[in-house]
Amino acid sequence: MSEKPARTPPRLLQVVRSQPIAPHLQRITLGGENLRGFPLQSQGAHIKIFLPRAHQQQPQLPQLTAQGIQWPPAAERPITRTYSVRAYRPDSNELDVEFVLHGEGEESGPAAHWAANAQVGDYLGIAGPGGPDPLLAAADWHLLAGDMTALPAIAALLETLPANARGCVFIETDLAANELKLIHPANMHIQWLVREPQRERLVEAIKQVAPPRGVSSISAFIAGENLAVVSIRDYLRASYGLTKKNLYAIPYWRRGQDEETYHQERHRIMDEVY
Ligand SMILES: Cc1cc2nc3c(=O)[nH]c(=O)nc-3n(C[C@H](O)[C@H](O)[C@H](O)COP(=O)(O)OP(=O)(O)OC[C@H]3O[C@@H](n4cnc5c(N)ncnc54)[C@H](O)[C@@H]3O)c2cc1C
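^ thats the input. predicted complex w/ flavin-adenine dinucleotide below
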């Protein structure tokens, strides 16, 4: 029996590079001695990020103690968000995280604002990786769908699927110029959808596909805005009888609510039994 690895304390990292890979997506590459030993098989996994407060150069990280996690006092406590591992390269000891640059001014959020302005040498804390393992169960046919926040995890998953994997991938974006060239198995068909506020384009697209004849198992990865994820999850449960074993459906964010406000509701949705 394999032993559960000991929890790793949060790591304080520094920005090594920042590059726009699409108009609304900024790849931040992090590095530093504290990154050494980061788990290798973590493509697409969740990480918590810890942002410094306005008066800080570095975020003050929570500590792992024998009594559990100890947070700094409220005024020093880092702003916490959840992101995905796009890639970790042990040879160069570099971690890529891709941030959607959403909204402007008051419409933006601390994480998007931080990423848009990140400079080489800036500090960011991370904890993890975590989340379900695997993120996408092995199956004859796969369905992957999400918006730009899910794209880093989807792109990472596509790179790890076996060459003979089959399925459909739908990615919704606000702007056609955000479409990226993805590396993927030949029979994973990619379709980009430009968002139309009055339509549920991801849900519509999923309803229009069906598994090819002879498929005996299906698995799905669905992530992004709350409404789309919950609708697709309910459709896949009803139509294909998918359960938590073969259906990852996690709302990553909710329109009009910041992470702190939405956090509890997300956990309620994630805890639903199916
Ligand atoms: C497991 C997991 C993995 C995730 N991985 C990634 C990832 O790899 N890359 C990534 O960019 N995001 C990812 N997210 C989503 C990200 O955590 C949220 O978008 C988060 O709210 C961004 O924080 P913020 O400080 O920028 O905005 P917040 O302060 O949380 O929100 C401010 C305002 O912006 C709105 N908002 C938040 N996100 C968006 C958006 N994408 N588009 C439009 N409006 C938005 C909110 O509704 C709110 O009104 C992930 C979330 C989870 C749970």
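The pocket of flavin-adenine dinucleotide is lined by residues 46, 81-84, 98-100, 102-103, 109-112, 149, 152, 250, 252-259 (CB under 6 Å).
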